Amino acid sequence: MASSTELYERGNRLRREGRYDEAMNAYSEAVALDPDSPARTAREMLAAQFEFYCKDYYNP
């Protein structure tokens, strides 16, 4: 079983590769193992990117 640090690093690698869903899963697993992991911040930042909505992009 991977440690929270390994999962965090795996999430970072996946994020750099553009595999965002898999990165989010790796971050979530890391946080489940260690709630104080830096993966918590990384997961929050990635979630904020997913939630970003700019109405100007969709209304010409």
Q: Poorly predicted ranges (pLDDT <50, ≥5 residues)?
A: none
**What is the total tally of β strands?**
0
| Rounded average pLDDT | 91
Count every helix, treating DSSP H or I runs of 4 or more residues as helices.
Answer: 4
User: Hey, roughly how much beta strand do the residues contain?
Assistant: under 5%
Radius of gyration: 13 Å
Short description:
The chain has about 60 residues and is mainly α. It has helices spanning about 5-15, 20-35, 40-50, 55-60.
Q: Could you characterize the architecture of this molecule?
A:
The mean pLDDT is 91. It is built from 4 helices and no strands. The longest helix is centred in the middle third of the chain and has 14 residues, at 20-33. The protein is elongated. The protein is 73% helix and 0% strand. Helix 1 runs antiparallel to helix 2 (20-33) and helix 2 packs antiparallel against helix 3 (39-51). The termini are far apart. By secondary structure, it is mainly alpha-helical. The chain has helices at 4-16, 20-33, 39-51, 55-58.
List keywords for this structure.
60 residues; mainly alpha; elongated
Question: What's the structural blueprint in terms of helices and strands?
Answer:
Layout: H1 4-16, H2 20-33, H3 39-51, H4 55-58
Helix pairs in contact: 1-2, 2-3
